[in-house]
Amino acid sequence: MVEVTNFICSFMSALSNCSLYSKDHASVEAFARKSFSLLENILQESAHFELMLIDDDLVINKTSFKQLGMQVENLRKRLKRKGISYINFLPGVTFKELWELIPEILESEKKVPLFPHIKIGVLDIELEESKINEEFDDNDSSEFLSEQMMHIKEIFHDISSTQQMSVPRLNEVMGHFASAFRKNRNVLNLLSRAQSREEYTYIHATNVAVLSIFQMKTLGIKENLFLRDIGIAGLLHDVGKLFISEEILGKKGALEEQEWAAIKLHPLHGARFLTSIKGIPRIAPIVAFEHHRKYNRQGYPELQLSQEKQHIGSQVVAISDCFDALRSSRPYRKGLEIKEILSIMEKDSERGFNPFLLENFIRRMDKELYATC
Q1: Which candidate in 24, 63, 203, 214 could, as Cys together with 194 as Cys, close a disulfide (CB 3.0–4.6 Å)?
Q2: Domain count of the chain?
Q3: For residue 166, is pLDDT > 70?
Q4: Each residue's pLDDT tens digit, 104-159
Q5: What mean pLDDT comes out for the span 195-201?
Q6: What is the Cα–Cα distance from 211 to 364, expressed in whole angstroms?
């Protein structure tokens, strides 16, 4: 912890001197080299070193550092002015990368450059859209998905291990997916397949998010922030399962009555957790609570108000959830082909799903499937 404290102090000294002089000034280089030496020591003990803004707090490797006083406050202001939500230093980072980062933080009008071993997240989604639209095409989908999946895996790990979540990082990742549709990307190229039960939770969640953004886009929704929010709701729809025991979730045989009752509580767990997270889109806890409700008001959780209808966001996510669940291989069955899935879902159109939304989804998925042939 002492090295982290010393790093913040020396890094801020480098920033302060750079703002007074220039990057090439001797004092800037001296503080940068001291910072780099401390950073190397920190990375010997950890797989990464992350500075993150959560609301108005600076969180370092999941620990709030309010106790550093003015130095932390100044760094927080610098990052916020630049629009940076997190800086993640990875093993292999060089002195040159750290040194070049310093003046970039001070230039509030410039876009954040790319560094091989420093991952930087931005709060302003629009800032990243041009980069995605210029660099990402369907041939690059594997690399794009790999990078986003890494972030999503970390988000889910944080939830399960600490019951905390980085909303800025969540906003950024779903902003990337929302932006990927701006040039009519084929949704099938943005879906992944889980190779193990351990991967299924976050890969299924990501697929549901992508499919939900896709549905809203085909319905004429163009506002990027709304697409991002429905993506977040889709990603977190099953977050309540992280509060169910692995013994129940991983059981291969039929669930006993009390085990099934525990599973049916996950919408409540998810909604309760998400309402406690500051900055999360309001639609997310609603979808978490309602995604197993049926269009005909059946399903669970059971409500006393029989006339209560699903939110349209919940109706969209329910379609995405069902489609990807049937598409995914599970221990007890193989994943189904898309044509077969759409046929099964169509038969349930007036009972389980909003007929209009389902008809649109089937028609659009047929079109996407045809485009890949």
Answers
A1: 203
A2: 2
A3: yes
A4: 888 866 777 889 999 887 644 333 443 444 444 545 667 778 888 888 988 888 88
A5: 78
A6: 11
* Beta carbons of 202 and 234 less than 8 angstroms apart: no
Residue appearing with tokens 């190779």: 195
Q: Range of 358's domain?
A: 128-372
Residues 198 and 327 in one domain: yes
CATH number, domain of 364, equals 1.10.3210.10
In 3D, which of 240, 50, 83 has the Cα closest to residue 171? 83
| CA proximity to 63, closest of 49, 76, 77, 78 | 49
pLDDT in tens, 67-101: 556 777 788 888 877 878 789 899 999 999 999 99
- Find the DSSP H helices in the chain: 2-20, 26-45, 70-82, 95-106, 125-135, 141-162, 167-180, 197-218, 224-235, 246-249, 257-263, 266-275, 283-290, 312-327, 338-347, 355-372
Name the strand (E) or helix (H) holding 88.
Answer: strand 84-89
pLDDT score at 332: 58
CA dist., res. 239 & res. 159, Å (int): 8
Count Cβ atoms below 10 Å from residue 186 Cβ, excluding itself.
Answer: 16
Query: Is 207 found in the same domain as 345?
Result: yes
Residue 331, token pair as written in the block: 């221990």
Distances in Å between the alpha carbon of 173 and those of 74, 105, 239, 310, 330? 27, 21, 17, 26, 27
Q: What is the rounded distance in angstroms from the CA atom of residue 184 to the CA atom of residue 180? A: 8
Distance, in Å, from the CA atom of 21 to the CA atom of 297, rounded to the nearest integer, reads 66
Contact 312, 370 (CB under 8 A): no
For residue 279, give every residue at least 6 positions away whose Cβ sits within 8 Å of its Cβ, in sequence order, or none: 55, 167
Tokens 């996407």 belong to residue: 368
Q: Of 98, 123, 148, which one is at a domain's C-terminal end? A: 123
C-beta of residue 214 within 8 angstroms of C-beta of residue 188: no
**How many whole angstroms separate alpha carbon 8 and alpha carbon 18?**
15
Same domain membership, residue 108 and residue 164: no
Residue 30, pLDDT score = 94
**Which residues lie below 8 Å from residue 95, measured CB to CB, with a gap of 6+?**
32, 33, 36
Distance CA 297, CA 317 (A): 16
How large is the average pLDDT for residues 191-217?
A: 88
Residue after which a domain boundary falls, among 123, 138, 156: 123
Q: Which residues pair with 370 in a beta bridge?
A: none
